[in-house]
Design goal:
With 749 residues, the protein is an alpha/beta fold. Among the domains are: 174 residues, 3-Layer(aba) Sandwich (Rossmann fold); 114 residues, Immunoglobulin-like (Sandwich). The protein is 29% helix and 17% strand. It contains 21 helices and 27 strands. The protein has a six-stranded mixed β-sheet with strand order 11-16-15-14-12-13, with helices on both faces. A five-stranded parallel β-sheet has the order 4-3-2-1-10. α16 crosses α21. The longest helix has 17 residues. The radius of gyration is 26 Å and the shape is globular. The N terminus is likely disordered.
Length: 749
């Protein structure tokens, strides 16, 4: 079962991973014996103690006392190796059974060396970038004793107002599945037993990204079919890749908070997927079931969470206080507690914590080492998207003598790291200004006049000064975007345009008549239609992290060539949200383009404008579609060939075509394969990404690119809620993005 699932995961991710079976996901017989032996010695109170996670109170003595009493299984937010060892000593030497505590921390896109936010990493369409980023994070975090992270976040995110879109891999289930599985592999390494491995946590299970209106923590109303077709696949892939833990989400879906949702926790995760690791709640999400109106009090909270399949509660302390009585009353069976404790002990054994509980306090620091910085720089190079490049302004050529560096993000060491940075130190951040000076200062004169000093700044005098200074340059580099605080948890926005007076700054710069390159660092896809028009070129790097500066400098000067593609649709106007490529067709499909409202005749007849599912004042046209991004070179796509046009359900379709680099730069193209199931027992998306690959070609080079698509991958949850491939006609595109390419057709018998 495990092997089949692992092979499926390998297929899912093509040949990008070495498909060596990692050993952290197999039920090791030795470990199972140890778990049983230990469990048999535990009192009910000790068992329940394992199910309790606290956040560090800061007071080692106080926490040690609780640990010695057997009241704590895990602690989050301790990152000092000496303190971690003190706590561990209390557990191993001071508690009756010597069970080590599991130290956890949110290590989301780097511990010290900060990588691009996950949404940025997803723009690379390169699982190796995601794996490497997570590996570096694990090496750094484990060096202080952290052995559990709460990542990857693999919520499908189709609403850019939602602040947590920054932490996600964007709107697409397949891209998210591939990147999420790669992150799991990176965090956990080849074996959880390795001291540099940290347990991954697939979160937030499930549907959290569909929060109504993009408001954090809001309710979701996802049908079972949409859950299974859209929101669950990335989690299933993370499970198959060996994720040691899962976290429940804050939202209630269709009336049931995830922390009390037996269907997703027991039936799907344990029953259908065979997960045997830890399910932890989100921060206080157990007790928040009272706010939801799903539990009456703490006792009800503990009963509902544990019976639904939660193993460990994060910070809400209802288990320790309520479970003993609930067991006595028979409302929670001791066998249910035993199962939860087995899951927890199993992960602790897999992590090797019993054999090697302490962290080496004297190891030389691995923070920000050369390899880590190089990997972080690569990640930015691959994840930056070139959205526009009129008159080939980029890369800057030798004719450029003077550049003006402008904008609030040019030298914002804290903000370019983005959200969820607890441990990264801004004094290590390399900003674009610093990097341009250090790397290209001998080739060009650099005028720095920020204009605005932070993204919400509205200083008109600053704008005037910046425009005057910029007029003396050959090219203007405008570093715009969002401060880190404007995205992330509980940081949703109703208006996702550039904040402060950044647009006015750009207008003033455009008025100079000099070419303007906008470089945007943000936690989400912003509504930047006007700003794109004002710019000659646009690079979008999301929040790029520690090495944003050097990578962007090399991209600007052509030492590196952009290859990123949008992992999420860029809308023109926030009122178009949600707008995603894999939508269903309506009976009256939206037409493109709109007539200006001013042209609507007075007292126009009710049906005079036709009937289709557009807005009257905005077409459904996007600013940039999913999968979109330019390069300094050009690529030409040959007509794809299919290995067959009639296939059986167990066949593998081969799709091949010639890709040519027709420009002047060696560069990488992300080639995408989309499919549409034309008629089915339930309506299906107009397009779904099924494969992608990165192809690097020298100028003038051509290569045959081949995709293999098992027909089994066309299965979906149909009218009978069965996962099946339904026979019929399919359309297929091989394309540079989700809007281009000509369809081919094939039939499944
Ligand atoms: C709440 C967040 O939703 C979750 O993602 C995070 O891991 C926990 N807090 C722990 O900090």
């Amino acid at each position: 079962m495990r092997t089949t699932k692992f092979l499926a995961a390998c297929l899912l991710t093509l040949s990008v991973f070495s498909c060596k079976q990692p050993d952290y996901n197999s039920k090791d017989a030795e470990i199972e014996k140890k778990v049983e032996a230990l469990l048999s010695k535990m009192t009910l109170e000790e068992k329940i103690g394992q199910m309790n996670q606290i956040s560090s109170s800061g007071n080692i003595e106080e926490m040690s006392e609780l640990i010695k009493k057997g009241e704590i299984g895990s602690i989050l937010n301790e990152v000092d190796p000496v303190r971690v060892n003190q706590l561990q000593r209390a557990a191993v030497e001071g508690s009756r059974l010597g069970i080590p505590v599991l130290i956890a921390r949110d290590v989301i896109h780097g511990f010290k060396t900060i990588f691009p936010i996950p949404l940025g990493q997803a723009a690379s369409f390169d699982p190796e970038i995601a794996r490497e980023g997570a590996r570096v994070a694990a090496v750094e975090a484990s060096s202080v004793g952290v052995r559990w992270t709460f990542a990857p976040m693999i919520d499908i995110s189709r609403d850019p107002r939602w602040g947590r879109i920054a932490e996600s891999c964007g709107e697409d289930p397949y891209l998210t599945a591939v990147m999420g599985a790669a992150m799991v592999k990176g965090f956990q390494g080849d074996s959880l037993n390795d001291p540099t491995a940290i347990a991954a946590c697939a979160k937030h299970f499930v549907g959290y990204g569909a929060a109504e209106g993009g408001r954090d923590y809001n309710s979701t109303f996802i049908s079972e079919r949409n859950l299974r077709n859209i929101y669950l696949p990335s989690f299933e892939a993370a499970e198959a890749a060996g994720a040691a833990t899962f976290m429940t989400s804050f939202n209630d879906n269709d009336g049931v908070p995830s922390t009390g949702n037996k269907f997703i926790l027991r039936d799907v995760l344990r029953g259908e997927w065979g997960f045997d690791g830890i399910v932890v709640t989100d921060w206080n999400s157990a007790r928040e079931m009272i706010n939801h109106g799903f539990a009456a009090d703490d006792k009800d909270v503990a009963e509902k969470s544990v019976n639904a399949g939660v193993d460990m509660e994060m910070v809400s302390y209802t288990f320790v206080k309520q479970l003993p009585e609930l067991v006595k009353e028979g409302k929670v069976k001791e066998s249910v507690i035993d199962e939860a404790v087995r899951n927890i002990l199993r992960v602790k054994f897999r992590l090797g914590l019993f054999d090697n509980p302490y962290v080496d306090e004297n190891k030389p620091s691995v923070f920000y080492n050369k390899e880590h910085l190089a990997a972080a720089k690569r990640a930015v190079e691959e994840s930056t998207i070139l959205l526009k490049n009129e008159n080939a302004v980029l890369p800057l050529g030798s004719n450029v003598r003077t550049i003006a560096v402008v904008g609030p993000m040019a030298n914002a060491p804290h903000d370019q790291m983005g959200t969820w940075v607890f441990d990264g130190d801004k004094t290590h951040t390399q900003t674009p200004l610093a990097a341009l000076k250090a790397m290209y200062g001998d080739k060009v004169n650099i005028i720095y006049e920020p204009g605005l000093t932070f993204s919400r700044d509205t200083n008109a005098e600053g704008i005037r000064k910046a425009a005057a200074a910029a007029a003396r340059a050959d090219v203007i580099l405008a570093f715009l975007g969002e401060e880190a605080i404007l995205s992330g948890e509980a940081h949703s926005l109703a208006d996702i345009s550039l904040k402060g007076a950044q647009t006015q700054l750009l207008e003033a710069l455009e008025n100079t008549g000099k070419p303007v390159v906008s470089i945007i660092m943000a936690g989400r896809p912003l509504t930047i239609a006007h700003e794109v028009e004002l710019s000659d070129a646009v690079l979008y790097s999301f929040h790029p992290g520690t090495m944003g500066g050097p990578a962007l400098a090399d991209l600007i000067f052509g030492k590196a060539v952009p290859s990123g593609k949008t992992p999420v649709t860029f809308v023109q106007h926030v009122g178009q949200v949600p707008l995603y490529y894999a939508h269903h067709n309506t009976g009256r499909p939206a037409r493109k383009g709109v007539k200006p409202l001013a042209e609507l005749p007075l007292e126009a007849g009710q049906t005079s404008e036709g009937s289709n599912s557009s807005y009257m004042d905005y077409s459904v046209e996007l600013l940039f579609p999913f999968g979109y991004g330019l390069s300094y070179t050009t690529f030409s796509y040959g007509t794809p060939k299919l290995s067959a046009t009639e296939l059986a359900k167990n066949d593998v379709l081969k799709v091949s075509f010639e890709l040519a680099n027709t420009g002047k730069y060696e560069a990488t193209e992300i080639v995408q394969l989309y499919v549409q199931d034309k008629v089915a027992s339930v309506t299906r998306p107009v397009k779904e990404l099924k494969r992608f690959t990165r192809v690097t070609l020298k100028p003038g080079e051509k290569r045959m690119v081949e995709f293999e698509l098992p027909i089994a991958d066309l299965a979906f949850w149909n009218i009978d809620m069965k996962k099946v491939v339904e026979p019929g006609e399919f359309a297929l595109w091989v394309a540079a993005d989700s809007e281009s390419g000509e369809p081919l057709t094939f039939t499944v018998k």
